[in-house]
Design a protein that fits this description.
The protein is an alpha/beta fold. Helix content is 32%, strand content 15%.
Length: 336
């Protein structure tokens, strides 16, 4: 129940049931929830009352999506993995449309260690998994390819982002430092920033990520044109700022997904995904592909056990093979 003025309570079970209901299941990382957002506008257009079952992190990036009517937030292991199938089977009975996006990308188009598909030859993996992630999500929802992938900042967040950018002045680049896995860190950041600082005095760079990304910011704390915001900005603040930045750069992260269909210029360093997988429908995007022989591997990586490591940088070989020259030239082309 929800407390109301006058000591009264509102009991949700007494509310009239909507005419058409749809349940969407999506846990996962920030980028997974951004990709899931693509289906909500079309479902709402078809008259569905949407309930999203997600994690706390998923709720954080989705909570102001105007197409979602209700959220059910599940804590980690609140429903044990072994009980998820019967849990979902029971949920199906309560909705007119049931859309389970679990493993819509991971497990299906990105193989998981320990499963048979993880050991497939590269050619076969590419043949079976080189499908666009948004298209897969729409196919699971059985709706047309009217893509609506989007992050929705509040009016307050928009005002805050514009004020932050105004204080920085000049051309502002938002650099997303790392994603949720080993292979989503580009190792030549310092080289690229130094070159930008020397050749482009009007450029300001905002570095963002989680608290661990503060390690990647070391050495730039006293440079007035570099703003170290990892662990200081929330994910919603970073996503809101990405929408008004002049350029957004980074590996395969939730931030890049959030502006995929926006007009803001963006540069992405691909790793385990191909252009077909990730950026096929994105706007104003420079997708840098590694020349590494294992790219695109179409695999989930939780460590470096199955990911070729670059001995010089310690990062994934596919990221190390994207050179500072490639990234700098891509930035220069957008600055013209």
């Amino acid at each position: 129940y929800k407390k109301q003025s006058g000591g009264k309570h509102r009991y949700s079970y007494k509310e009239p049931k909507p005419i058409k209901t749809a349940a969407v299941i999506r846990y996962g990382a920030f980028g997974d929830l951004i990709q899931a957002s693509s289906i909500y506008p079309e479902l709402k257009r078809q008259g569905y009352h949407i309930t999203l079952y997600t994690s706390e992190g998923g709720y954080e990036v989705s909570k102001h999506d105007p197409h979602i009517y209700k959220f059910v937030i599940q804590g980690k292991d609140q429903v044990p993995n072994a009980a998820l199938v019967p849990f979902w089977d029971d949920l199906k009975k309560k909705y007119d449309k049931f859309i389970n996006l679990s493993e819509s990308v991971e497990g299906s188009l990105l193989s998981i260690p320990g499963r048979t598909s993880h050991g497939w030859p590269k050619a076969l993996a590419h043949k079976m998994m080189n499908m666009n992630y948004m298209e897969m999500v729409h196919d699971l929802a059985e709706i047309p390819y009217n893509f609506g992938q989007k992050f929705y900042p509040t009016e307050e967040e928009k005002v805050w982002a514009k004020a932050e950018k105004k204080k920085m002045g000049g051309t502002v680049i938002l650099w997303s430092l790392a994603g949720s896995a080993f292979h989503k860190t580009w190792p030549w950041l310092d080289t690229a920033i130094a070159r930008l600082m020397i050749k482009n005095p009007e450029v300001k760079i905002v570095l963002c990520g989680d608290t661990l990304c503060q390690l990647l910011e070391q050495g730039w704390e006293k440079e007035p044109r570099v703003f170290c915001r990892s662990g200081k900005w929330s994910i919603r603040e970073s996503l809101s700022f990405a929408h008004i930045a002049d350029i957004v750069i980074g590996p395969e992260t939730g931030i890049l997904n959030a502006v995929g269909l926006e007009t803001v210029p963006k540069i992405i360093m691909l790793s385990h995904s191909s252009r077909e997988n990730l950026t096929k429908h994105w706007k104003n995007t420079v997708a840098l592909e590694p020349k590494t022989d294992c790219y695109p591997c179409h695999k989930m990586h939780y460590n470096s056990d199955y990911c070729k490591r670059d001995e010089t940088s310690g990062c994934a070989q596919c990221q190390a093979d994207i050179t500072p020259d490639e990234v700098y030239q891509s930035i220069e082309n957008l600055l013209i």
